[in-house]
Amino acid sequence: DPLSEGVFFKPHRRAERKEKQLRNIEKERAMHEKVQLERLLDGLLGHDWLRVMGVTGITDGEKKDFEWKRQYFIREVRALVDKFREWKEEEKRIRMGKGTVPSAKDEGDDEEGNEDEHTQDDMTEPPPSSDVDAWAARQLQQEASRSTSSASVPPNQSRRGQRMPAHLLPPPTPEPDTPFTSFFSKPYIRAAALGKHRYGSRTVLAFGLPVPDFEERLFQLPPDYTTPEELRASARRRRILRR
């Protein structure tokens, strides 16, 4: 049934919002981890780094034994902080490539609103020129290979290939008298089926026709499973499993 785009827009929009929410949650979690790592790095670089590492009750002489562990943790935490910084710079570069330069306030508070605008821009903007050029090149390559293959076939063989027996030809598709517009015979039935309000007593339709009621009956095994040979084989398998 040919439906308008508005029928499919709402479910897809709901899924897009859900995906956007999950993406924002992941970003907030990543930023929280970044803040925790920066705080840990400041503690390791400070004078009270032993307490940050969970070491207490040692003398100044024993303090040197933990210096290499401190340097190791500093390197690891600094590498993670640098990764977060590179990820943030990559996001800024992608946004600047789209023509929008986010401000400091937009990065923190209005991040979700900016993502909505970018999503709408992506939906309305035309495909990039590189994709169009690649598609055009692919089309030209296919046409060139098609023309080369047809030119390499001898004319007699091509004429023989064109002759097909009449009984092998598929029958022509009958053209409908009227253009197909809907599965429903009456407009009000279609409007009720596509409406937002659903009633429990309404008739269930499939392709515009009412679905018949199914007859309730007890379940029975197929005859192939109730033959004497199959019953003996099943009993034999159960005896083997019990052993």
TrEMBL record:
PANTHER family: SOMETHING ABOUT SILENCING PROTEIN 4. It comes from the Eukaryota. One of its GO terms (molecular function) is histone acetyltransferase activity. Residues 139-159 have a biased composition (Polar residues). Residues 1-95 form the Something about silencing protein domain. Signal peptide: none annotated. Residues 168-177 have a biased composition (Pro residues). It comes from Patellaria atrata CBS 101060. Residues 97-181 are annotated as: Disordered. This is Something about silencing protein 4 domain-containing protein. GO terms for cellular component: SAS acetyltransferase complex.
